[in-house]
Amino acid sequence: MRKLLPSACLSWFQAEQACRLAGKRLVNEIVRRMVNVVVTDLIETSAARIAAAAPEDIDVVRAARAPLVGMGESVAGRHLALKRFLRDQLYRHPRVQTMTQRSQRVVRELFDAYFGDTERLPTEHAERVRRMEGEHGARGRARAVADYIAGMTDRFAIARHEELIGTVTLPDRF
């Protein structure tokens, strides 16, 4: 990761300052400063745009030719470059993709198990499934099961999956 930092992130603050930091401290400082730059620019640029437009009511805001709230061009460009970097180097990383696929499998299998047998749900959730199914048919049943799963933490979902279906191999850390 450190090899990638200079090209992707160090432009957010002077490289000589970064050289004094290492490891997690370097990453934390870069993130802290990046957030500060983006938020400060967003506030200052938005304030300047709003002051220049001097909108008297919401209709003037809606009729504005450009958004009144947003980042300046320079920071917006760097922000977009960072988003591309994260998409390519982090979100699409093979290890992240593997973890995502395994997690999707856990959710899908939990859904199938609970949808197929609502008695596996805690009593209050099984009652909600029956109520929603009575009101909206299969869609209501699916919505109630999906809502139950959506409220689970990762650890709870994995534990329920192990109880209902079996163990799924997930890496401890990336």
The mean pLDDT is 86
Major pleated sheet: none
Low-confidence stretches: none
How would you describe the shape? flat
Q: Count of DSSP E strands?
A: 0
Give the fraction of residues assigned to helices: over 70%
Q: Radius of gyration, Cα only, in angstroms?
A: 24 Å
The proportion of strand residues reads under 5%
Number of helices: 9
Helix and strand element order: HHHHHHHHH
SSE class: mainly alpha
Number of domains: 2
- Terminal CA distance reads 12 Å
Give short descriptive properties of this protein.
174 residues, mainly alpha, 9 helices, 2 domains
Describe this structure in words.
The structure is a single chain. The chain has 174 residues and is an all-alpha fold. It has 2 domains: 5-92, no CATH class; 95-164, no CATH class. Helices cover 72% and strands 0% of the residues. It is built from 9 helices and no strands. The chain has helices at residues 5-8, 15-18, 23-53, 58-63, 73-91, 94-116, 123-136, 138-150, 154-164. Helix 6 crosses helix 9 and helix 7 packs antiparallel against helix 8 (138-150). The protein is flat and about 60 Å long. The two termini are 12 Å apart. The model has no long low-confidence stretch (mean pLDDT 86).
